[in-house]
Amino acid sequence: MKYTVSKEKSEATLSFSATEADWKDAESKAYAKEKGKYSVPGFRKGHAPKHVIEQYYGEGVFADAALDELIQSGWEKYLDDAEKATSDELMPIGRPGANVESVKDGKVKFTLKFPVRPEVKLAEYKGIKIPKIEYNVSDKDVDDELRRIAERGAKVEEKSGEAENGDIVNIDYKGTVDGVAFDGGTAEKYDLTLGSGTFIPGFEDQLVGVKAGDERAVKVTFPENYHADELKGKEAVFECKVNKVSRKVVPEINDEWAKNVSEFDNLADYRASIEKRMKETNDRRARTEKENAVINAIVDGSEADIPEVMVSEYLDDMLRDLGMRLYYQGISVEDYFKFLGTTEEEYRKENHDKAARGALTRLCLEEIVKRENITATDEEAEKKYLDSQPEPEEGKEKRKPDEREMSYLKNEIVMDKLLDMLVSSAVTE
Fold first, then answer.
1. In the beta sheet, which residues pair with residue 217?
2. What phi, psi does 38 have (nearest 5°)?
3. CB-based contacts of 353: which residues, under 8 Å, 6+ apart?
4. Residue 373: CB atoms within 10 Å
5. How far apart are CA 219 and CA 237, in angstroms?
6. Are 146 and 277 in contact (CB under 8 A)?
7. Neighbours of 264 (CB within 10 A)
C-alpha cells in the first residue's frame, strides 16, 4: 500500500492508495476477526464461509471492519517507516484521525492526519538583556533571623497581672448577633495571642488589661468582606471569660543560648553560619530569577504552532505535580477540587494558556540543547549520583544508579549546562 506524506505547521497528512489486493487482504483479516459474531443456519456460529455470511447478511457486511483493518495496516506501515527514518521531524506525537475519501472497485483512498513536533521559530538566546538581580544580607537581616529563632524557642509562662499585647489569653467565648448565637461563634479554652490580628478587628484590643477570672463583653462589627454572608457588616457581642493569662519568655540571645540551640560554642560563630546560609539562599533566589528572566525573554520572542496534544500532556504534568504536593498534605486532588468548588475539566480550561506556554518553553529549551549539542556522559551522571549519596557503612560501597536514574540525572545535567550557558551569556541592564 503506497502513501505520500505532507506537513503543514504541526500537522502531517498521509494520503494512502490501497489496491484491490490490499482490500481483499483487509477483508480476509476482517472476516477472520468478525466471523464469530454471525450466525448462519446450517453452520456452527463462527464457522460459516465468508461468501455465505455475505449472502446471508449482505455483501458489505465486513466492509467497515475491512476499512478499519486497512487504516490500521497503513498506520503501522508508516510507524515502521518512521522508526527507520534518520529524522524525527514527522514522528507522530498523538493518534491519527482518519478520513475515507473513496471506495471504488476494490480500490480505497484515505488520509490520516496526526500531530507532529512543531518547528520552533527560536528567538536569539545568547546575550539576552535582563535586569540586575541581587539580594544582599544586612546586619539587621541577621539580627531579625536570630530574633525569630529565639522567639520560636520561647517558653510560655502564666502571669498574674494584666494582659498586654503579645500575651496569650485563654478564653471561653460565645458570640451573638441581635441576641442570637451563630455558627462558629462559640469556643472554650481558646488561646488567643493579643495583637496577632487573628480575630475580627477590635476584638483583641478590648481584651488588653484583663486578668485571669475576668469576664468581659467584647463588641465588634464584622467587616463587609467577611467570608460568611449572613454576618457581613453585622454588630456582634462576644461574652468572654478569661481562664488564664500567659506570656512568652524569649531567651536572651547570647553565647549560652547559641550553644544550646546550635552546634557552635558561641554567638559569633552561630551568627556567621546564619549569615552564610542566608547569603546562599539569596544567591539561589537570584540565580533562579535570572534563569526565569532569560527563559521568559526567549519564549516571548519565539513562535511555534503548539498542537493540542502537547498542551494536554503539559496539563497532565501539572495535575501530577499538584497531586504530589497535595499528597504530602494528606489531601486528594478530588477533595481539593471539591473544596474549591471546581472540577478537573475547569482546571484544565483555566490553565490552558499556561500549559501552552509551558509546552512552548519546553520546545525552545530542547531546540537550544539540540543546536548547541549539549550532552551529558555516563561518567557525569554517575558522579552526580554518588556525590549526592551519604557515606556508606564501613566495608560497603555506594550503590550505583540504575538505568532510569541515569536517564533522569543526564537530563538534569543537560539542563544545568543549558542554564549555565544562557545565564552566563546574559547581559545585565
1. 239
2. -110, 135
3. none
4. 6
5. 5
6. no
7. 16
Determine the 3-state secondary structure of 387 from DSSP: helix
Do 182 and 175 meet the contact criterion of CB atoms below 8 Å apart?
yes
Cα gap 200→227, rounded to integer Å: 12
90's enclosing H/E stretch is none
Whether 1 contacts 77, CB under 8 Å: yes
Give residue 10's pLDDT. 93
**Residue type at position 48:** A
Question: d(Cα 285, Cα 282) in Å, to the nearest integer?
Answer: 5
Please list, in sequence order, all residues whose beta carbon lies within 8 angstroms of the beta carbon of residue 411, skipping any fewer than 6 positions away: 376
What is the chain's length? 429
DSSP track, 50-71: HHHHHHHH-TTTTHHHHHHHHH
Strands 11-18 and 107-115 come out as antiparallel
The single-letter code of the amino acid at 121 is K
Q: In the prediction, which pLDDT does 392 show?
A: 78
pLDDT grade for 400, boundaries at 50, 70 and 90: confident
Helix (H/G/I), strand (E/B), else coil: 13:
strand
Name which of 56, 8, 13, 14 is nearest 35 in CA terms. Answer: 56
Helix (H) or strand (E) segment spanning residue 247:
strand 235-249
C-alpha cell at 224: 463587609
User: Taking a C-beta distance cutoff of 8 angstroms, is the pair 100, 113 a contact?
Assistant: no
CB 242, CB 217: distance < 8 Å? no
Identify the band that residue 228 occupies on the pLDDT scale cut at 50, 70 and 90: confident
Strand partners, 157: 247
- Residue 395 pLDDT more than 90? no
